[in-house]
Structure formats: structure tokens, C-alpha cells
Amino acid sequence: MRLEKFSIGNPAAVIAAALLVLLFGWIAMARLPIQLLPDTQQPQLFIQVGWREAAPSELEEALIEPIEEAMRGLPGMKEMRANAGRGFGGVALTFGIGTDMTRVMLDVVSRLNTLPSLPPDADEPRVFAGDNWQGANAASMLVRPLPGNPVTDPASVYQKLMEEVVEPRLARVPGVSRVNLEGGRPREVRVSFDPHRLAALGLTPSRLAELVAGARDVSAGFANVGRRQFTVRFTGKEPVSQLGELIVGWSGGGKTTDPLGSQGERPLYLREVADIQIAYQDARAFTYRNGVPGYYITVNRTSESNIVGLLDGIKEAIAELNAGPLAQEKLVMDLSWDASVYVRRAVGFVQESLIIGILLAVGGLWYFLRGPRALLVLAATIPLSLAFAVITLHALERTLNVISLAGLAFSTGIVIDAALIVQGNILRYVQEGKNAWDATLDGAREVIPALFASMLTSVAIFLPVLFMEGLEGQLFKDLAITMSVSHAASLLVAMTVIPAANRWALARGIPADSHGHWWQAMARLAMRATEAPAARAAWIVALVVGATAFTLLMRPKPDYLPVAPTENVWGNFRLPPGGNLATFQREVAPVVIARLQPYYEGQKEPAIKYYNFSAFAGGGQGVVVAYARDPEKTQEVVKLLKEEILAGLPDTAAFANRGSLLSVDGNNAREIRLWLQGPELEGLMAAAKVAEQEIPKAIPDTFPQPYPPLEFSQPELQLKPDEWRISRAGLDRNTVSRSLRAYTGGLWAGEYFDGNERLDIILKGSEWTSPEQLAELPLMTPQAGIQTVGELTRIQTTVGPSELARINGRRTITVGFEPPEDMSLDEAIERIREQVEPKVRAVLPDNAQLSYAGSANDLQEALKAMANNFALALLILFALMAALFRSVWDSLLVMLVIPVSTAGGIAALRLLGLFSFQALDLLTMIGFIILLGLVVNAAILLVDQTRAREHAGMARRDAVQQALETRARPIVLSTLTAVLGMLPLIVMPGLGSAVYRGLAAVVAGGMVIGTLFTWFLMPALLRIGEARKPAARLASTPVSELEAQGR
């Protein structure tokens, strides 16, 4: 039994099925994870390394480069980035979308096991899912004291609480890759000694470190004693409080001897030459929340996690911590950065636009139909068709984001089209005198083949989108799914619900078409305009050639992703070259806080709702994040940070800008990066300085950010060993270097495990504050007595890099910047190539390279992919129509409306640009692909109807006129409902509206202009050869069937 016949005979079953679809659609909508955009994050792994007190160059040589060598050739790896700072670093591996990360993780761990021996005090490499240091964190939290809590340094007082309670709880949240205790000061066993006393007693730091390291338990194996087997253990470990009782030597008669030599009269204990205590490491960061010191925590997410679900889990964890362990310590945790707020607001805004669009589309139908029952039946096709799309998204494990919601909004008016055709055809048969059953059955049955062909054409143009790879494929796949499924579902609804509900809809008679004279007037106008052969030629040339020329001349510059600013302001700055964190916190932090407080307290405008002020020693960077109380004044806060809050800080470069909703792999989606790569760091720095100076000249209002810093800003005291003196003194270079480390940053002497926690044992001499004091520090030697550091080495003052960066195994300096919001990415890249690149290459070393990365490189790849897929969509469309008409000529006639609709989309973009900046970004480009499947429908209708009338023997002129008269109503209603459904996406302002506004404008503008001029272009094309005998049958569809389509 055919579907339409079953529906007519079983209306109750059809209605029940429709209600179930709506129910399942509602459930699927509620269960879909919410996200701003489809997941564009490329899978990443991060290998973290650490080496206490190591300089960047040492860490690069000993840890980073061997890891890079081991990771080369990993399957699916697209990029390898490395960073080496002071004492820490990492290697970030980026893979292509779809890579099996479980297998990759096993491969990475296996390769790490093949690394050569690491320095004894270096940390073992650790592997994390996600990227630890590129781009923004998934979330950031601040733990601060409550009123009445006198603690001013939470990092030192509450470190154990953070490590044992807070970090594990946050790490259990699904989707968390790693919890970073940025404000942490880990504990260590510190053995503090006086170098002068140590040397006077005949001991060296190296010897002292060996003795302390020997205080540990050692297993000697197993021994069989009779019937029993004993474990033999040397229990040499002592509690920290008892380490001072270790004997480091013997003294007598004023002479101190080595414990392995002859013994004196009394033992010399470790407590007599050193102080032993559990201490906190030096601070590597500080954070203030609204002027109050806090403990800063960040969270990295896994590549496949959902940001809204992740933040929901983090909020639940924060509530538990605040109600329990933190409250007991008079602490509270604030969620400092919550991206889910913006995501929910943006998605909620699209949902509102979707509802308003549905109401507008239904209102437009009401104006023309005026029959409440018929209108209700037609309106029901919208939620039913969209419900199928939502169910499909859930089944495919996609997300509810602004792209998928925009696809639903675009479909609101379009999915009514099939129902309009079926209902119109049924009404025609009723007017001819058939009974309701026969009219419904024949009317629905006759149009189904044509509707199926039309649906197939609309869906087929999305096939290239479904197979797109990379970021473009991730972005557009949801749009293709929602629009394709909703279009296909609209045909199913038209075949079932419309016939089933038809008897009820027609119970009160057939509503008369009060606008019939409009359709006749439109047909007469088009016929008069194309009456003469010269006029027809003029219409064809003017519209096709003119539209093509207009598109080429007026198309905006291409861009990557739209500008979508948030309401938070980021002020970034670098610490003074060579400055230490403690001095910056003591001298600069109070100044910044004093400048911010009047705005936070509301004494000055623009008032600030809350702010965070942080600085980090590792990268020498700091940040102020501020939120305006009035979101409309966010741009004023940007100006405030630039011109007042961060202005005039000594030796500090600062800039401020708004955050962005859109990011690619954690970076701003509009960031352009210049990579300068080569072995000579000085030459790269010189070239990067030229780029930093020239970019603002070429593109005003930009703030280039070089990374790493473009100068050897880290002061160094280089101690060159005096080989002759060291050898004569009975020492070697290793002993001297270990002693220098003990005198300065601390010598690692092993680890201490108390049963719960593993602590580093650090041997550290008393602090020195000048190179002269360092030179006077003594060192006991076997053959030359006490020698000073200045006698064993030559000290010189110089500078070195504070950080090193490597990309794909090569040293790299990156100069990144974001074009102004009113400039497209393509225009910015063009200016850089013409005005900046030649000057940079002029100073770039011969063995170095310059390349573009970030969105600059992504844009070029995306443009190629979009061009290829647009051409493929055109080919698919042409082939389908040729098969439908059985005529290449008629297919070509329909294709000629595409330049007109494309010009309409470009015109809409230009019109939109008069009110706000609008570039031709990737999301906007997909609108032109959507147009292909929409604007040809009107042309298909006219060609089908004309050829059918000619086949019946009608003269071509009469056939064209009758086609115009019978197809005017469905063409106008279809265009009207589609545009009204999209209108809220274009005109309604709101957070994230910039993401889809250009896309909606292209589709709406292309449909309006395309439909308007198609009304004149298609008669001109169809009337070619009008004086000849009516053409032979060119369409495969029977005349009665085409007449019954009722469009």
C-alpha cells in the first residue's frame, strides 16, 4: 500500500506518529550537549618536562630536543611545538581530526621509554590529553580568604589542602585533562647551610648532598634461613625532624676529618652545619581577585569534551568544596572564567530567533491563506520536520550549537514548500468536482515524483559539505545535517500528515484565493518585459553578465571566521626584562590594584564588575581580566586598561582587547602569525623586531606580540671554569658546577617519601646578592685547601633568552597579531605580504625561513576547499537537473539563475556592511552553497510547467504565460516564508549574532533578488525560439502530473 493511501485511511495512526516524533524531538533537544560551535579542536597531546633551576637552553638541549627526535614520524601528527622556559617546558603534538588518540597515546609513551638517560634531578616526562599552554584555559578558578581570615598568602598556607583535596576533586570532573595549580608553592625538604662554615669544616656541598641522599631505605634482597625466607632491608631513612642527627664528620683538636678518614674526638652532626626544614618553594605566580590575594587554578580539557557539560561539572565540584573543606578553612572558590555563560546566551539567542522566525513564517502564510484550519495543518509541518533533524543530531552524537540551530532556523520557511504543493494540488482537484477521498489521493500521488526530485536536488548540494575535512568540515557538517534532514522530512510530512489531515482542513469549505489577480498581473508584467527578441536578449545579457560582473567587483575580502567579541577584557603585559616576580609584586602590583579599585568600587566610570590581576614568573607574563558592570561599556574598559591601568608601568609592554567567542585550537580565530625559523636566534630576533615595528605601520591599531621575547632579556652570570686551577685543586667540573647550584638555586639531593607525599631534598646555601659575593664563596678542595668561586672560575655578566620556542623541530620566533575588527583577514594578509614581508626578509639570515601560520595559513587552505566544494556542488546540481529534464539545455537554463542569486547574496552583504562590518568569512561562504539548492526551485517549476504545456500542443508564448500564472503563488509564498524565517537572524542583535548574521543575509538576499529577477530571466530564456513550432517533449513528467503540482 502506498504511503499516501495508508495516511488517508488511517489518520489517527498518522497523528499519533506525528505526536511521537514531536515528543522524541523534544527529548532529543533536551539531551543534546550545548556548545557554541561544532567541535573544531584538533586532537592534541602535551608532554610536560621539568628540570629544577635549568636555563632554557639547557632544558632545550637535554630534554626538548631528544623528545622531538623521538616523536618524529608519529602517524597522523600535523604539528609539533615545543617550549623551554626557566626550569620547565613541554612539547605539544597536534593530530588530524579522526586520529585514533588511544593508539597514539600508547605510541607516545612507548617512544618516551626509549629516551636517553635524563639528568638526575629532572622530572620524568608526563603526557596529558589536550594542550597545556596554547590558548585559553577551559576554566579558571580563584581561591581567596573570606572576611575574618587573616591569611595574606594562600599559596603557602593552603598548598597541602589544594594538592590533597581541591586538585583531586576537580580532576574527577568528566572532560578535565589536567588541573594546574598555577598559584602553588610545592613543599620541599630544604637543607640550608652556610658555605663559609661548611668549607671551614672541610666539607663540600657535593659531599653533603651524598650524605643526605644516603638517608634512605635500601632493600638488600631475600635470604633463606632454615624454613623461612627473610627480606633484608637497610632502614636508613629518618624522619625530617631527625635528619639533623646524621653524622657528617668528626672533629677534634680543632681539626675536622672526613668520616671515612681517621676519627676525631666527637661527631659532627648535620644540624651543626645546616638547618633542615620542610619549606615552600619560591612563588612562581601571584593573583589578586578584586584586590584580595588568591590561589589561582586553571583547568585544561580533553579534545573531545563538551565545554558546557565540563563547566557544569566544575560548578558542582566548586559548590561541594565551598560547602565543605574550603568553608572549614574560611576560604571560598570563585569561578573566574566561565565560557559556558557566553555559550548558553548565544545558543539561547538563536533559539529565540528560531521561534520568532517560525511565527513570522506562519504569519506570512496567514496573510495569503486566511483559512485557519489549512494554515494550522501547514504550520504543523515546521516543528515536525525540524524534530526529525534534531533526532538525527542526537543519533549522530552531534551537539546543539549556533550552527545547527541556524540550520533549523533557515529551514523554518523552506520546509513548508512541499506541504504547500500537496495541499494546493488537492484543492485543485476538489474545485474540479472530485470527492474528498479521490481528490486527496490523486492530488498527493501525482506530485510526489516531482517533489522527490526537487528534494533530492536540495539535499544533494550538501553532499560535498558532508565530506569536507578539517575545520570547514567540522563547522558545516551540522548545518548540512539539519537542512538536509529537515528537507527530506518535509517531503515525508507532506506525504502523510497533509493527506491525513485534509478532510478536517476542508470541512468548512475551500478558502478562496483573494490574491489571484496579483499572480496574473505578475505574469503579464513578465510577458510584456520579454515580448521582443531584443528585450529578451537584453534581459539575459544584463542579468547573467551583469550579475557575474557585480559579484566579481563587489565581493568583500575573504575572512576566516567572523568577529564575535565577548564582554570580558584582557589586558596582557610582560614583566620587565630580568625582573623577578617578588619585586614586581612588591612594587608594581599595588600600583595596578590602586588604579583598578576606584572603578571596581563604582567611584569612577566605566564601573568594573570584578577583575583578576595575575603575573607568572615562568613566562614573564601577566594579565588583567576585567568585566564591565554595563556590558555596553565593554569597549570603554578596553580603552581604560590601555590608557590608564596598564599605562606607564616601568619597562613593561602592555595591550588590551576584548575576548572572542570563536577560537581555533585555543587561539583567537582571527590571529595571524608569522613564523621565523632558523638556528641563529640573534638573526631571528632582528628580523622579528622589524616585523614588530612594521606591522603597526601597515595595519594601524594592531599590537604585534612576539614570542619568545625579542631580546636576551634574562641577565646571566656565566662562570667559565679555569681548567688548570680546578685540576690542580683536585676537583672536576661536575663538583664545581654542583657546588654552584647549591650556592644559588639549590642542589637536588634526592627525594624524601613520608608515606603520603614525595618531597624533593634541596641543599641550598645562604643567599648572595651580588656577583662579588658569589666570587667570594669558598669551596673546600682536596689538594689546595679552601678556594673561592672567583679563583676556580672566570665570572662575566651577560644576558640570555628567558624562553625558547621550537616548531616542527626548528627554533622559531612567532610574531602574532589580530587585525582590527573592521578589516578582513585577507586584506590584512595582503598588506603584510606587500609592506612588511620584504623588509623582514631583507634582514632574515640566509639559513632562516619565513612562513605564515594561524588563521593566515588556515584561510588559504579553507578557500581552496570551499572553491572545490562549490564547484562540485554545481556539477552535482547540473547533473541531477539534466537527468530530471532529460535535457542538458533545460538544465543549463536553470543554472543561469545562479549568478543572479549570487549577486543578490553579495548585495545583501554590502547592505549589511553599511550597519556593521561584515566580511566574506567561511560561515558566510556556506550560504552560497545553500543558495544553490534553493533558488533553482523556482526556475525548475517554470521549466517543468512550460515544457508540459508545450507537449500538450500549446504555443510557447501561451505555455510560458500559463506557467507564470500557475507558479507565481507557490514561488512567492515559498520565498516569503523562507526569508521571514531567517529575518530574526539578520536583524536581531545579541551575543554571538555575528557568527551567523552574514550567512543568513546571503541566503535571504540571494533568495529575494534571485526570485525577483528570475521572474524576468526565465521567461526571456524560455521564449528563445518562440516563433518556431512548439518543441518536442523535453520533460519526463506527465502533463497531468505537472499541472497537479499546484505551485
Beta fraction:
15-25%
- The CATH topology annotation of the domain at 517-554 and 886-1047 reads as Multidrug efflux transporter AcrB transmembrane fold
At CATH level 2, the architecture of the domain at 517-554 and 886-1047 is Up-down Bundle
- Average pLDDT taken over every residue: 83
Question: In total, how many beta strands?
Answer: 33
Q: What's the main sheet like?
A: 9 strands, antiparallel
For the record, what CATH class of the domain at 517-554 and 886-1047 applies? Mainly Alpha
Low-confidence stretches: 253-257, 1028-1047
Distance between the termini: 27 Å
- Give the CATH H-level superfamily of the domain at 517-554 and 886-1047: Multidrug efflux transporter AcrB transmembrane domain
Tally of individual helices: 36
Instruction: Label the overall shape.
Output: elongated
Q: Please state the structural category.
A: alpha+beta
Mind explaining what this structure looks like?
- The chain is an alpha+beta fold and 1047 residues long.
- Among the domains are: 1-31 and 371-507, Multidrug efflux transporter AcrB transmembrane fold, CATH 1.20.1640; 188-216 and 236-280 and 714-800, Multidrug efflux transporter AcrB TolC docking domain, DN and DC subdomains, CATH 3.30.2090; 517-554 and 886-1047, Up-down Bundle (Multidrug efflux transporter AcrB transmembrane fold), CATH 1.20.1640.
- The protein contains 36 helices and 33 strands.
- The strands form 8 sheets. Strands 1, 2, 3, 4, 23, 24, 31, 32 and 33 form a 9-stranded antiparallel β-sheet that branches. Strands 5, 6, 14, 15, 16, 17, 18, 19 and 20 form a 9-stranded antiparallel β-sheet that branches. The protein has a 4-stranded mixed β-sheet with strand order 13-7-27-26.
- A hairpin with a 2-residue loop joins β10 and β11 (255-257).
- α16 (436-460) packs antiparallel against α18 and α24 crosses α29 (825-843).
- The radius of gyration is 37 Å and the shape is elongated.
- It starts with a helix and ends with a helix.
- The model is unreliable at 253-257 and 1028-1047 (pLDDT under 50).
- GO terms for molecular function: xenobiotic transmembrane transporter activity.
- It holds the Pfam family ACR_tran.
- It comes from Stagnimonas aquatica.
- Keywords: Membrane, Transmembrane, Transmembrane helix.
- The chain crosses the membrane at residues 349-368, 375-396, 402-426, 447-467, 479-498, 534-554, 865-885, 892-916, 922-943, 971-992, 998-1022.
